[in-house]
Specification:
By secondary structure, the chain is mainly alpha-helical. It has one domain: Winged helix-like DNA-binding domain superfamily/Winged helix DNA-binding domain (Arc Repressor Mutant, subunit A, Orthogonal Bundle), CATH 1.10.10. The chain has 8 helices and no strands. The longest helix has 23 residues. It is elongated and about 55 Å long. It starts with a helix and ends in a 10-residue tail after the last helix.
């Protein structure tokens, strides 16, 4: 059954269709949150909360974007809310948590992530988010702007900044440890 049909059935109250829809997108949301939080335990919690919010708000979903984009938006807002509530989630305060990451291979090749993990953990979530959404999930600038609730120009600027810093690090001109 295709996603469009599952969405229509879910909005009408079909619990099995909704369950299937969420299962189809679960690994995308969790993989995204692992990369954002750099902490699998926190990613698990936020993924569960995201799925609950999707269940409670499925009737509000408007198919102007992919269903996964809607879930990523919910996950992003949930993560931001958690950061405001719980300062312990700010990964920079406990960088040892990064070593516990188990990145799902279907979403990201682990060795590829390992190469830039040290750089990504130095970025604020506002800078890390557009990079992850663009380069690991292939979202358009417009979709990223909608998820982040900011102008497309801001997305482009943040991506440019991230790529510049990553290239500099990969070329040996590391500025790890400086505030990014």
């Amino acid at each position: 059954m295709n996603e469009e049909i599952l969405i229509k059935l879910s909005k009408r109250g079909d619990k099995k269709a909704l369950e299937k829809l969420l299962q189809m997108n679960y690994s995308i949301v969790k993989g995204y949150l692992i990369k954002m939080t750099l902490n699998e335990e926190v990613a698990d919690d936020i993924t569960q909360e995201t799925m609950l919010k999707a269940i409670l708000n499925i009737k509000k979903y408007k198919p102007k974007a992919k269903f996964s984009t809607w879930l990523i938006t919910i996950a992003t807002n949930t993560y931001k809310d958690q950061l405001r509530k719980d300062k312990r989630l700010v990964y920079k305060e406990d960088k040892d948590l990064v070593d516990d990451i188990d990145v799902e291979k279907s979403i990201l090749i682990k060795s590829e992530f390992e190469e830039i993990k040290e750089i990504l953990k130095e970025f604020s979530y506002e800078k890390r988010m557009p990079f992850i959404l663009k380069h690991y999930y292939d979202y358009s600038y417009k979709e990223i702007a909608e998820i982040m609730n900011c102008p497309v120009g801001t997305v482009r600027s943040r991506l440019h900044y991230c790529i510049k810093k990553i290239k500099k690090h990969m070329e040996g001109g590391s500025d790890i440890g400086k505030k990014l």
